Amino acid sequence: MTSLDFLLLSIILYVAAACGSLLFYKQEALASKLSGVLGTCAGIAGIAASIPTLLSGEVIVKAIYSPFYFSDFVIRLDGLSAFMLMVISLLVVATSVYSISYMKEYFGKGAYAMGFFMYSFIASMVALVVCDNAFYFIVFFEMMSLASYFLVIAEQNEKSVKAGLQYFLIAHAGSVLIMIAFYILYRETGSLNFAEFAKAELTDMQASAVFLLAFFGFGAKAGIITLHGWLPQAHPAAPSHASAMMSGVMVKIGVFGIIKVSIDFLGAETAWWGYVVLAFGCVSSVLGVLYALAEHDIKRLLAYHTVENVGIILIGVGIGMIGIAHDMPILATLGLLGGLYHLLNHAVFKGLLFLGAGSVIYRVHTKDMEKMGGLAKLMPLTAIAFLIGTMAISALPPLNGFVSEWFIYQSLLTMSKEGTLAMQSAAPIAVVMLAITGALACMCFVKVFGICFSGGARSPQAAKATEVPMTMVFGTGSLAVLCIILGVGSPWIAPVISTVASTLVDTQAVTVTQGFALIPSDASQAILSTPVIVITLTALFIVPIALVAMFKGPKMASRNAGDPWACGYGYEDKMSVSAGGVTQPVRSMFKPLYTLRKRIDPAPLMAKTLAGTTNGAGSLEPQFDNKMILPVVALVQRVGRVVQNLQYGDFRAYCLYIIVALLVLLFVPLNLGVN
Amino acid sequence: MQGLEMPSPDWIALAVFQALFMIGLAPLATGFTRVLRAKMHSRKGPGVLQDYRDIAKLLRRQEVAPNPSGLVFKVMPMVLIATMLLVGMALPTVTNSSPFPIAGDVITDIYLFAIFRFFFSLSGLDSGSVYAGVGSSRELTLGVLVEPILMLSIFTMALSAGTFDLGYISTYMATETWQVPGAVLLAGAACAFAVFIEMGKLPFDSAEAEQELQEGPVTEYSGSGFALVKLALGLKQLVVAQLFLALFIPFGKAAELTFSGVLMATPILLAKLFVVFLIAGVIENSVARTRFLKTYHLTWVGFGIAVLGFIFYLIGL
C-alpha cells in the first residue's frame, strides 16, 4: 500500500469510528469500544502513511474529484504535513485505547455523541493538514472548531456552556481573520490552491497584512497570550482524552497555520515578522507558566501550560523566520528544528499529563488538587508515567522536553553570535525568558506531582483510589515510553525533523548529529549525547549504593512508619503543605504580572460585545411589533371597547335600541329612496 | 576551534577520577565552613574532619521515614549524588578542556542542576511534613530567582567565546585576550552572586538555623539516607564553586592531558577552592537572614548586573 492509501484508510476509519459511535447510540458500551478500536487502527494507519514521506522526503501531490467548480481538492503530503500527521496519529493511538475504558464515565450522558464528535474532530484535523486548497482548508478548520466545540460543552452544565461560548467566539474571530488573509491571497493569484498561493507576488504592505491576519487568526487557535482566554476554560470542560487531543494537537494546528502562511506562502521575507512571533512566544511562555502556577484545578493548570509550551514552540519558529529573512539557513533550520521538535514533544507529554489527570479524576472524581494526595502508592503505574511526564515537561535531561529546548538555546546562541544588533539583543531576552520559564515549570510540576501523588491522602475519595483499568494505563504508559524514546533516541530522531525544517527553509540539510551525539551544525559550539548521559547517570548510581553497602554494619532494617514531624504537636493530614502554599512566594513576588491576567484577555470584551449584540437584537426585534402591529391592535381594541359599551346586557337598553332603530328607520328611508 | 568529540578513555578516566575526588572532598569543604563559622562566632567548634565522622556514623544508622513518604523520598539522595557527579565529571577543573564534553555544555549542566532541584523539593512534599513542604517551596522559588542571573551571565560568556562548551569557554578565558573585559568582569560578578545563592548560604538560606526549617526538604531524612543527602549538598557546593572557577578563573590549569600537568594543577585548584569557600563563609557569617518574601529585591540587583554585563558586551567594552 502506498502512503496515500494508508492516508485514505486512516480517514475512512475515523469516519467509520464516528458514524459507528452514532449508530450504536442505544448501546453506549459497544459504541465506545467500537469507536476506540477503529480509532486506534486509524491512528496506526496514519503513522504508516507519514513514515515514508518523513524518511525519504518525497512529496506526494494528488488531486481528487471536487464537486465544486471553483476549488480543486488537492492532497499534498510533504515534510511538514507528514510530520503533523505523525503527531496527530501518535496521540490518537494513545487516546483511543485510553478512551475505551475512560468513556464509562460518560455513559448515559451522551457518550455515543462524544465518540461521534471526537472522531469527526480528528478526521477533520487529519484532512486539514494534508489538503492543499484554501476552500477545503477553511471547511475542515470549521469542522474541527465545531466538533471540538461540542466536546467542550459535553458536560452540559452552565460552566461548560459558558466555556464553549467563549471558545466558539474566539475560534471564529480567528477563522474570520484567516479567511480574509486567504481572500487577499486569492485575489492576487486567482486560485484557491495553496500551490498558487506560494507563488503569489504581493507588495510589502499586502504581505505584512496577510502575515498579521494569519498570525492572529491562527494564534487564536494556538492560544498565544492575549488570545489564550479560551484554553483554561475549554480544556477542563472537555473529557480528558478530548482535552489531550485539543491541547496536544489542535493548538498545534494554529502553529502549523502560522508556519504554512508565513514561511510556505510568504517566504518569511520580512525580518520583523520573525520578531513578532519571537516576542509573542517569549511573553506567552513566561506568562503561561506563571498563570499555571496559581491554579489548583489540575486541568486548568495543564491548559495554562499549553500556553507556555506554544510560546516555546513559537520562539523556535520565530528564530527560524528571522533566520530565513536574513538568509542564514543554518540558523533558520536550527530554530525550526527546535520549534518542530518541541511541537512533537509537547503533544506527547501534554497528552500524557492530560490522560494522567483524567485517570486521577476517574478515580477521585474531582479536578481540585487539594482533594488528591498520596495517589502514588494507590495508583503506582499511573504515578510513574505521570512522573515521567512532569520531568519531560520540566525539560529535565535526558527526556524529550530537554532536547528540544537545548536546540532552541543553541539556535539562540548562533543567532546572537552571528547576527545583526537586533538579533544580538533579542537572543538574550529569549534566553532569559526560557530560563525563567524552565525554573517556573519545574516548580509548577513539583507542585502538581507533590500535591496529587505524594504525601498523604487529602480526602476520603483519594484514600480509597485504586489503579485504573489496563487500557488507561496503556494510554499513559505508552506516551511515557515515547517521552523517553524521543529524548534518549534524539540522535536518530533529530535528523528526520531537521530534514523537515530544512525543506521549509528550502536549503541543504544541516548536520545535527555526529555519531551518537547531537550538535548544533557546528561541533565546536556544543555536543550532547542523550544515550551516553543515560548510561553515565545510571552507572553513577553505583556510587551512593556502594557507599551505603560499605557502611552497612549491623543496623536495623529501614522503617517506614509514623507521622511526619510536627514540632512536637500531634500530626494531622491537613498539616501537609497545600498547593497554594507551595507557590505563595512566587505569587507574591510576581503580583503585578498576575493582575495583568484579566486585563489582557479580550474574551470578556468579546462576550460583552456579543451580549450587547444579542440584547440589541432582542430589543430591536419587538420594535416592529411595538411600532406597527401593536398600535393597530390597540385601535381595534379601543373601538371594540366603545362598541362594548353599547351592549352591557340590560333588557331596557335593548328596548331603547329597538325604539331608536324604529324611529331612525321611520325617517331615514325617505332619504335613502326606499318606499 | 576544532569540533568536540566523544571523549577518549583516558579523558573519561580523568572525568571519573575528578568526580570521585570531589565527592571525597565534599565533607572537608563543609567541615571547613563549620570551622570558619565557629571561629567567627568566637567559639570552639568541632574539628575540620567532623563532617566525615558525622556521615560515617549516619551511614551505619537505621533509616526511619514517615508514613506518607514513598518512592521519590527513597531515591532522592541517590539522584542528587548521581546528577552532581555527572556535572562534576564535565567540569574542566584541572585541564583547560572539559574531560566529558558530552555533559560539558552549559545548558545541559544548568538543567542537570534542575534535576537536583526537582527531586530535592519533590522529596519534601513526598514526606508529608509541612516544614519540609515549605522548605521545598522556598528552594523552588530561589531557583526561579537565580536561574535568569546564572543563565544570562553564562550566556554573555558563551557569546564572548562563541561556544556553550565549558571547556572551550575556559580555554578562551585562560589563553586568549579578552575582547570585552568589562563585560567579562560584570558577568563574573553576577555569576558569583548566583553561585553564592546556589551554595545555599545566608542571607538566602540558612542550613543550620531555626529548627523548623532546617535544610528544608531534608527535615524527615535520617540514617544512611540523611548521610547521602548531606554528602550531596556538600558536593553541590563544591560543584557550583568549580563551575564558577572554570568559567571565570581558569588559570593555572594543564593545557594537555599529562600526568605531571594534572599533578601541578591540583594544588592550584585546591588553593582556589580554599579562597572561594573562605570568601563565601565570611560573607555568610557577617550577614543576617533576609525575609524570604523580600529576597527578590536582592536578586534583582544580581540580575541588573548580569544585564549590564550583556550591554557591555554589545557595545564592546
TrEMBL record, chain A:
Molecular function as annotated in GO: NADH dehydrogenase (ubiquinone) activity; oxidoreductase activity
Transmembrane portions of the chain: 6-25, 37-60, 80-98, 110-128, 134-153, 165-186, 206-231, 272-294, 301-323, 343-362, 383-409, 429-453, 473-494, 526-551, 654-674
Location in the cell: Cell membrane; Membrane
Residue ranges annotated for the NADH:quinone oxidoreductase/Mrp antiporter transmembrane domain, each copy included: 134-418
Pfam families named in the record: Proton_antipo_M (PF00361)
This protein's UniProt keywords: Cell membrane, Membrane, Oxidoreductase, Transmembrane, Transmembrane helix
GO BP term, pick one: ATP synthesis coupled electron transport
Membrane-topology annotation of the record: Multi-pass membrane protein
Record's GO cellular component terms: plasma membrane
The keyword Membrane is annotated on this UniProt entry: yes
Protein's recorded name: Hydrogenase 4 subunit B
Automatic annotation (TrEMBL), chain B:
Subcellular location, record wording: Membrane
UniProt keywords, alphabetically: Membrane, Transmembrane, Transmembrane helix
A Pfam family matched in the record: NADHdh
UniProt GO cellular component terms: plasma membrane
Membrane topology: Multi-pass membrane protein
Major localisation: membrane
Spans traversing the lipid bilayer: 12-36, 71-94, 140-158, 178-197, 231-251, 257-283, 295-315
PANTHER family: FORMATE HYDROGENLYASE SUBUNIT 4, FORMATE HYDROGENLYASE SUBUNIT 4-RELATED
Identification of the protein by name: Hydrogenase 3 membrane subunit
Organism: Shewanella maritima
